[in-house]
Amino acid sequence: MAKKVEKLIININASKDSFGAFAENCTGIYASGDSVRDVKQDVYDAIKLFKEFNPESEWPEPIKENWPIEWRYDVQSLLLYYQGVFTNAALERMTGINQKQLWNYANGVSKPRKQAKEKIENALHSLGHELLELSL
After folding, report:
1. 3 state SS for the chain
2. Taking burial as the number of CB atoms within 10 A of a residue's CB, which of 52, 59, 78, 110 is the most buried?
3. HSE (CB half, 13 Å, CA atoms) of 3?
4. Separation between Cα atoms, residue 30 and residue 33, nearest integer Å
5. What gap in Å lies between CA 43 and CA 110, rounded to an integer?
6. pTM, 2 dp
């Protein structure tokens, strides 16, 4: 039986004026920034600092074993991060969620229900799989 690949799970969340992140399965890793890109860099810096200032015997397994990072977004941070890539019109066609509602999610006016989150996630995963299968 194949061994399951362990991952360091980092949750990224948007707030009113910034982004924050924390490791779900590793203590001591927190980050913040003005953008998702800044937060991701701050996560890498936090891991580096953790290694620098703590003896290796105290490193949590995800850090000690250099597990790959799995980035998990809340809907607001995901939509804000990718708004330069996907227009609301494109997302509406992909998800079936109207543009005004997508804008509300991206700007923190409302939070999506589980069904809407699943529509967004499934549409993006479907696009990703389709892109992986093409050749030029």
Report:
1. CCCCCCCEEEEEEECCCCEEEEECCCCCCEEEECCHHHHHHHHHHHHHHHHHHCCHHHCCHHHHCCCCEEEEECHHHHHHHCCCCCCHHHHHHHHCCCHHHHHHHHCCCCCCCHHHHHHHHHHHHHHHHHHHHCCC
2. 78
3. 3
4. 11
5. 27
6. 0.84
